[in-house]
TrEMBL record, chains A, B:
Gene: proA
Keywords attached to this entry: Amino-acid biosynthesis, Cytoplasm, NADP, Oxidoreductase, Proline biosynthesis
Name used for this protein in its record: Gamma-glutamyl phosphate reductase
Pathway: Amino-acid biosynthesis; L-proline biosynthesis; L-glutamate 5-semialdehyde from L-glutamate: step 2/2
Aldehyde dehydrogenase domain segment(s): 3-291
Amino acid sequence: MTTAEAVKTNTVEEQAKRAKKAAKNLSILTTEEKNEALRTVADALETGYESIISANLIDLKNGEEKGFEQAFMDRLSLNKERIFDFAEGLRQVAELPDPIGDVMSRWTLDNGLKVEEVRVPLGVIGMIYEARPNVTADAAGLALKSGNAIVLKGGSSALNSNKAIVEIIHKALEETRIPKNAVQFIDTVNREATKQLFTMKEHIDVLIPRGGASLIKAVVENATVPVLETGVGNCHIYVDSDADAEKAINILINAKTDRPAVCNAAETLIVHEAWLNQHKELLAESLKKHGITVHGDESAAAALPDVKPATESDWANEYLSLDLAVKTVKDLEEAIDHIDQYGTKHSEAIITENADTAKKFMQLTDAAALYHNASTRFTDGGALGFGAEIGISTQKLHARGPMGLPALTTRKYLMSGNGQIR
Amino acid sequence: MTTAEAVKTNTVEEQAKRAKKAAKNLSILTTEEKNEALRTVADALETGYESIISANLIDLKNGEEKGFEQAFMDRLSLNKERIFDFAEGLRQVAELPDPIGDVMSRWTLDNGLKVEEVRVPLGVIGMIYEARPNVTADAAGLALKSGNAIVLKGGSSALNSNKAIVEIIHKALEETRIPKNAVQFIDTVNREATKQLFTMKEHIDVLIPRGGASLIKAVVENATVPVLETGVGNCHIYVDSDADAEKAINILINAKTDRPAVCNAAETLIVHEAWLNQHKELLAESLKKHGITVHGDESAAAALPDVKPATESDWANEYLSLDLAVKTVKDLEEAIDHIDQYGTKHSEAIITENADTAKKFMQLTDAAALYHNASTRFTDGGALGFGAEIGISTQKLHARGPMGLPALTTRKYLMSGNGQIR
């Protein structure tokens, strides 16, 4: 490590320490103090949007020179409307109920000791994300509302945009009760800096990775700080022998094509062989009409036109495109076994008119969200009415499915006595 | 790796797979089916207690030959009464409310999609523990009641005792609706076997280490499977300038001496210098009377007799003995800073007659359990009325403080529709 790098890596720890200290002050602010601060930041982002756009242009130019693909450039790109959307998002978070201070339960022991279980902030959130600069404002807003400090480590391709956003946030926070140190932005692109966050247990209470599968894997495998795992969705639609054809096809097409690049989009159709044989023409026509490329097993290839042979990687892949894997099964058990083997425990749907089959599927399939006769696209904090979300948890501990403000909290037991001993 | 080892390490994965499969069948049993099974196991442990004692004698003989210390041998040692206590423990778990299937919330979207948030088992619990054979029966009981399969990896010093207990559990389960594969016991003492559990994300949903600090550290640092961190308690009693002397001393002595070897025992007295000066004779007398060895800072040494100079390691140490570190402070802030630096976020107490000071302490100190004018010894599932506990979480994610049955569960969102798409 060169001296310059050593200085930089020390800086990350200093930043985390400052966040920890700020978190303590933040944890005791009132709801109105936090809301007022969020509205102040929102106004400042609107007033200062031009500086963000200027910085974003530099990132876009760098990205073009590096030949990033179009979808990536789209995620990176900002304009006035998008920045005003960040601001509006912060104002919406200000409107959400404040989870902090909620007394979750309360009782008194026989000896008179009073016990209260109270909701408190986690402390310091480490957010590791990729190109989308909107995460900078969104994550900061959710963290601050729930009384947490945040250490932001965004992708290097959005460095200038993120810096411009954080600069505005910092300046705005100076006029509020929230200490500006509660939002730390790591502006080095040195990889050691990110790795330092993985093991900074003393200063960081939770890491939330948001981005592609390889980012999430790197964090899960290397972090000793607890992780809230988000996002990878290899979601299945199982069309049962008792499925209504119109519902099945509508839901499949919606789940596959509405927004193919999001995690709650469907990637694999599991279809009962009897249903497939009966409805293959209708299915083939719909798939063709919507430009879907099919990767299927032998039975699928026999029933449908233009099927590419599916390999192991097709079953495991989150395509995030108009590709669809098609697996044919003889019964519900085979469908569930396939999901057990390849699913990512995100969102799984069954289409059937048979209530018993649906019940079994929902009981025996292990995922955050199970659907009967509806599209997997509803696994989303906004769609389900959570107000806002910091990500979709695919793990089972702490939070599962869309994570709203309560996922950024923990509890304390407060015991008040007058000398009780055991 | 030799062939024999290869076979053994393969076996661990096979065992975890069998547990995963059993978990699926277990998750849909009724409460009565699970309770009936627990009572059957309890009866079998009582009927078969002699075989456990015989096996335990072998472990004790091996332990003596290896020269294990007395406290360790005590934890290892079983007798008829202790085994009947295991059985009674299982019957008590059968009496507890079943968390599985609880509808935690329920709502309907504007489009008619019905949403239910339902409590479900985690799946497979990996329990890694040290010498206490009671954990084998206790952990299996809590896991099964909450619909989870369990993979048990106990300390090698209790191998024979644990095997005898599991043999009885397995034989008893054959007469019940719980598949015997739901309880897996890893009977190899090969270290690779334990390490395999650390990364078996496909088959194991959570690891719970129970034992000393080094075991817990090894699991936290090496596991990619999510961990429920338990137990290390470097707990402080802060005696404020406004503390009532009698309450302060009673609570301190209770927290230090009632059971010095448990995690909710006090390890450090933080004392306001004004209080110390006023009450030093009374404090010195009590400490002496209870055989407490004091490791203190300079001010403590000036005020109290026979004080050994405290070093950095005294502040960080979980003594688990009649040793006590004594830190003198000028104010509340210094006390909280000390706890922030050295505490393990387990249990912290303030003794004061000043309600404002107490409130500040409870707001600003980061721990699972905060006490005002009471002993830290109440941080315990039994004492707080949780019915039973699988451990005391010192982490913030998922569960904090004493963990009862709900800590062994997660949730599913179940969505029922009639063709809803986005």
